């Protein structure tokens, strides 16, 4: 396979778009509605992992009908709050700077198509994105490496020609299993020490902070 320009793979939720706590609220309401109340902090700890794994973890492996209902309710409540979605500080500028460096901008997410559409509208950077993944591309998402490997394939590069940027330990673990260095950001609500312990090569406050230090980050090593 012909190798293309090196790529920066971006998670979206909590990394580029301020959406993690909207997910927490939507899941909390969903669990309440089916009579399985879950504390918000427990939900937050699972945000970013594969959806089926999240449901198994928080519902104590409830049956398929209950899990299907939970997904439907989450979608309803999340979409109802879509107006609150916002690009995180520096997110659009970071994507533009990466593109200006001659690197591919790849959105490497396992979000379902309906959520991805809202996230893409929020970012409004379609003209500089080289490739995009979604839940349609894999059977199981983070912390498995599958979504990262699909992103690499779509970008036409190998692990040595890429850097992943994410906000959860699940991002860091998935990237590590795919052999891709991961930069962590704190904007998803996970601590610096946890991201570092998971294996993050560097950690920044948010996209804006990373943008300020981009020339000293693993991204610069791709150029």
Question: Helix and strand layout, with pairings?
Answer:
Layout: E1 7-10, H1 20-33, H2 40-46, H3 51-59, H4 64-80, H5 91-100, E2 104-107, H6 113-123, E3 129-132, H7 146-155, E4 162-166, H8 169-177, E5 182-185, H9 192-198, E6 202-204, H10 207-212
Parallel strand pairs: 1-2, 1-4, 2-3, 4-5, 5-6
Helix pairs in contact: 1-2, 1-4
Write a compact overview of the structure shown:
The protein is built from ten helices and six strands; from the N terminus they run βαααααβαβαβαβαβα. The chain has helices spanning 20-33, 40-46, 51-59, 64-80, 91-100, 113-123, 146-155, 169-177, 192-198, 207-212, and strands spanning 7-10, 104-107, 129-132, 162-166, 182-185, 202-204.
Description of the structure:
With 223 residues, the protein is of the alpha/beta class. It is built from 10 helices and 6 strands, in the order E-H-H-H-H-H-E-H-E-H-E-H-E-H-E-H. The protein has helices at 20-33, 40-46, 51-59, 64-80, 91-100, 113-123, 146-155, 169-177, 192-198, 207-212; strands spanning 7-10, 104-107, 129-132, 162-166, 182-185, 202-204. It has a 6-stranded parallel β-sheet with strand order 3-2-1-4-5-6, with helices on both faces. Helix 1 crosses helix 2 and helix 1 packs across helix 4.
